[in-house]
Write a structure and sequence with these properties.
With 227 residues, the protein is of the alpha/beta class. The protein has nine helices and eight strands. The chain has one domain: Alanine racemase (TIM Barrel), CATH 3.20.20.10. The protein has an eight-stranded parallel beta sheet. The longest helix has 21 residues. It binds pyridoxal-5'-phosphate. Pyridoxal-5'-phosphate binds next to strand 8 and helix 9.
Length: 227
């Protein structure tokens, strides 16, 4: 585990320097879906302070044992899971529907909690993916979230194309970067305050080059280490 973490951190560091960024500005999230508490504690022992869970059920089971680490919900969210997601997650990264936004606001209010959210955008336009596909819809959701006093919009999230070469991946990530510029133009009060959550095991270096602030890495961290 330690070696995986070190190797990934080194690759992030190198990618950042290649494009003139400060490696310190890039957060590495460990994606811990399907991983046991024991595996998670090993990755935390390597200094990682942020984990991501896909299923609210799993989040709910693990969170009580993980009170020193920040946890983000990075999977699709159904209405009946919103309450638990608000309770156990520090941020919900997969917001893309008005109905869910209103529910998050309601539960956050009930729980007297300020809830961080990110908007998920489907930058590769693949049908099987979640997230918004239009810039206008994005701007309307940003506006809506701005009216909710228990929500704080902290960024945009995307997944790169599932199949596809480097240029498709790059285009998908640079699209998210551009969309954030569009949001900043329309809502100058948000300028400089939104993170881009993009980049996974297979494409995190490209994501760094395209401006990612948060990498969500699972399989590469937990891969069997060669000895
Ligand atoms: C599983 C998952 C990841 C991590 O993917 P790996 O390829 O294992 O690094 C990142 N983001 C989301 C939304 C995921 O579901």
């Amino acid at each position: 585990m330690k070696r995986n973490v070190e190797q990934i951190q080194q690759r992030i560091h190198d990618a950042a320097l290649r494009c003139g960024r400060d490696p310190e500005d890039i957060t590495l999230m460990a994606v811990t879906k399907t991983r046991s508490l024991n595996e998670i504690s090993q990755v935390l022992a390597c200094g990682i302070g942020l984990i991501g869970e896909n299923r609210v059920q799993e989040l709910q089971e693990k969170a009580p044992f993980l009170d020193t680490v920040r946890i983000h919900c990075i999977g699709p969210l159904q209405s009946n899971k919103v309450k638990a997601a608000v309770r156990y997650a520090d941020c919900i990264q997969t917001v893309s529907r008005e109905k869910i936004i209103r529910l998050i606001q309601r539960h956050a209010q009930d729980q007297s909690k300020m809830m961080d959210v990110m908007i998920e955008f489907n930058t590769s336009q693949e049908a099987q993916k979640h997230g918004l596909t239009s810039r206008d819809d994005l701007l309307s959701l940003v506006e809506l979230i701005g009216t909710m006093d228990h929500l704080r919009l902290t960024g945009l999230m995307t997944m790169g194309p599932l199949g596809g070469g480097e240029s498709d991946i790059r285009r998908s990530f640079s699209r998210l970067f551009e969309l954030r510029e569009n949001v900043y133009q329309r809502f100058p009060e948000l300028s400089g305050n939104m993170l881009l959550s993009m980049g996974m095991s297979g494409d995190f270096e490209i994501a760094v080059e395209e401006g990612s602030d948060m990498l969500r890495v699972g399989s590469a961290l937990f891969a069997q280490e060669q000895s």
